[in-house]
Amino acid sequence: MRYWLVMPAAGSGSRFGEATPKQYAPLAGRTVIEWALAPFLEDPCCRGIVVALAASDLWWPAVAARLSAPAGAAPRTAARPALSTAAGGAQRSLSVRGALAALQDQARDDDWVLVHDAARPCLRASDLERLLTRLAADALGGLLATPAPDTLKRALDTSAADAPAVAQTVERSGLYRALTPQMFRYRRLCAALDAAHAARRFPTDEAQALEWLGERPQLVAGEADNLKVTTAADLVLAEAVLRARHSPLTAQDRVMRIGSGLDVHAFGPGDFIMLAGVRIAHSRGVVAHSDGDVVLHALCDALLGAAGLGDIGQHFPDSDPQWRGADSRRFVSQVVALLRERGLAVANADLTVVAQSPRISPHREAMRSNIAELLGIDANRVNIKATTTEGLGFLGRTEGVAAQAIVLLAEG
Fold first, then answer.
1. Any alpha helices (H) in 199-250, and if so which ranges?
2. What is the rounded distance in angstroms from the CA atom of residue 79 to the CA atom of residue 159?
3. What pLDDT shows up at residue 220?
4. Helix crossing, 294-307 with 364-375: angle to 10°?
5. Most buried residue among 141, 169, 237, 333 by CB atoms closer than 10 A?
6. Which residues are CB-contacts of 321 (< 8 A; sequence separation ≥ 6)?
7. What is the per-residue pLDDT across 260-308, written as a single tens digit (0 to 9) for each?
8. How far is CA 395 from CA 63, 105, 272, 400, in A?
9. Pairing verdict, β 382-387 and 400-411
10. Please, are residues 385 and 352 in contact by the beta-carbon 8 Å criterion?
11. Domains of the chain
């Protein structure tokens, strides 16, 4: 599934109390907006990104320059999603609509559009994947949200900012905090915002615009640490969250984890097979629920095993129709995101393809390059081998193909 990202970033952040808008405040070695964009810039499912900016914005050019050539970044074999800008408005919804207008010659009516706050720097990759997965087949869309955890009070006099009196306690059952990203079909979101603006109404989030048309967006569970930077105190909390996720361990604390994986698929009707994301012409296809890529399936099992996270069948069950025909590279990307959240990095991967045919040597470097990119490591840390069973067993009888993977993970 592919999507477009829209990011409203034209606000001045008056409650932040600083001369620099909050989205450009420094945070753990980057700016807030750079952290907010990071999960999407790294997601191969993102087609393109439009950031809506104020006309007086002086800070974006420096951010854009850093994003186009990140310091110390390894060369990428696949391009990042295109990053462009649009004119923002005085209200959030006007900024979103301006960014959507910039996509009118690219996005189809039923394309997915995600809207994410420029001041939400702590989005987890697993939350993004959950949103995409849960709403993939939905006609409308929805948003990340988390149940309200505290007792809620309604103020009697909202003008008494320092110490208003309590009017009543609000029942919190069924109440949620709306987060971002929010995810809707392109044309329906455009129509909802147009209807609101025509009535001189300015929704505080995209879901509200759809609600005003009688729609019922879905709530998808998100993590509470996907916080929005509104005040300087929020910036301190965001830094604590990010540093806890990304701080390296000392050499003494580093722990190495080994995992192994094995996958087998029988040959069936078809004229190609997928191996490590490479389409290889063959006299047979494979029988599989997804694309049947045994190399990437074995790799996922090895990664999950090393991390103590179960196996591929638990995360991507073949009983789930959303994975029918799925590109197995998506499985690896999601598993790698889970590892990163736990402070685990891939040190190296060694993979063996077991089959009488096809020959692997013509495709070895492309397979190696694909795996290296998916794991975020240099290709010299990935090894691909191939062997036969000398005509023995079901593999020797050319009834199928198998792959084994061994990986080493490092904490920190």
1. 206-211, 232-246
2. 51
3. 95
4. 30
5. 141
6. none
7. 999 999 999 999 999 999 999 998 889 988 999 999 999 999 999 999 9
8. 53, 50, 17, 5
9. unpaired
10. yes
11. 3-162+173-246 (3.90.550.10), 256-411 (3.30.1330.50)
Do 336 and 375 meet the contact criterion of CB atoms below 8 Å apart?
Answer: yes
- Residue-level length of the chain: 412
**3-class state of residue 190 by DSSP:** helix
Q: What average pLDDT score do residues 154-164 get?
A: 74
Average pLDDT, integer, range 240-252: 70
| Phi, psi at 290, each rounded to 5° | -95, -145
Instruction: Answer yes or no: pTM beyond 0.85.
Output: no
CA–centroid distance for 342 within its chain = 16
Q: Which residues contact 171 (CB under 8 A, 6 or more apart)?
A: none
> Does residue 142 sit in helix, strand or coil?
strand
Peptide bond between residue 181 and the one before it cis (omega within 30 degrees of 0): yes
Asked if the model's pLDDT at residue 71 lies above 50, the reply is no
Closest alpha carbon to 6 in 178, 242, 189? 189
Residues 6+ apart with CB under 8 A from 34: 63, 66, 67
Task: Tokens for 71, please give them.
Answer: 């310091």
Token couple for 171 = 């029942």
DSSP string, 240-307: HHHHHHHPPPPTTT--EEEEEEEEEEEEESSSEEEETTEEEE-S-EE--SS---HHHHHHHHHHHHHH
- Identify the burial level of 182 via C-beta atoms within 10 angstroms of its C-beta, where 0-12 means exposed, 13-18 middle and 19 or more buried: buried
Q: Which residue has the tokens 């993977």?
A: 405
- DSSP letters along 53-73, please? E-TT--SHHHHHHHHHS-TTP
Are 147 and 226 spatial neighbours (Cβ–Cβ below 8 Å)?
no
196-234 pLDDT per residue, tens: 999 999 999 999 999 999 999 999 999 999 999 998 899
In contact, 134 and 210? CB cutoff 8 Å: no
- The DSSP call for residue 104 is T
